């Protein structure tokens, strides 16, 4: 029986590569939050206040994402975190989901309560502040766009900023509609639309977070295809106990037991299996066990 642990060169995880950009987006967002909140309270605009609330969620989410990238790179001194702290980024994404759901729910409730009220809304302030907010959101999106394709943590922050950019556009649209129609009800309509958009984004991200925490196969990797490729390796008679999951974004992990067709083939099978996983599926961290033929050591496993 042969066993091996294979991995490629040690590289920085996906979220860590975008730490500086997360920091810049955090600084931009935090600097604008107070301005928008004060403007919303003074103007009486629910759309501005709701967008400021979402901006506050951005500040917390970006801060959590930034902090998580720092934790993920810390060495473990306890000896108990055998996988390190990389999943701190996934937990930060989960916090972002909860924040987005909370903000969306609050705005929906506030919008419903304001229906029928004849509130005074300063539409000019909405246009100016909404325009400034949109500019900041676009700058943050440009900073985070690349990382959103590689890191679930950065993707959570990116979704937050997308929702906030939509909020800024909504605030401007509401301001224009109020000026044109003279009806302040548009402020409520746009605020509710922003809330619905935020909730939908939160659900989408939440499903991705749960997939990682549930140790589902990473997106784009079919376990059946992995088993078929491993089974096609010369010298492999059977593949079983295959598990493929994501530790965090950009860090896919696999374990498998391979039954050799004859004794003595174990070293060659082990090397070939490592190559298949890395070259065909991008899995550089794999723990493989090669078993001699007619060995029943794993026959009793039920999971």
Automatic annotation (TrEMBL):
Keywords: Ion transport, Membrane, Transmembrane, Transmembrane helix, Transport
UniProt keyword Ion transport present: yes
InterPro entries the record matches: Cation_efflux, Cation_efflux_CTD, Cation_efflux_CTD_sf, Cation_efflux_TM, Cation_efflux_TMD_sf, CDF/SLC30A
UniProt subcellular location: Membrane
Superkingdom: Bacteria
Main localization of the protein described in the UniProt heading: membrane
An MF annotation (GO) of this entry: zinc ion transmembrane transporter activity
Residues that span the membrane, as ranges: 22-46, 52-69, 90-109, 121-144, 156-179, 185-203
A single GO cellular-component term on record: plasma membrane
Cation efflux protein cytoplasmic domain ranges (all copies): 219-291
Claim: Membrane is one of the keywords in the record: yes
Bilayer topology term: Multi-pass membrane protein
Family, per entry: Belongs to the cation diffusion facilitator (CDF) transporter (TC 2.A.4) family. SLC30A subfamily.
Protein name as catalogued: Cation transporter
Organism whose genome encodes this protein: Cellulomonas fimi
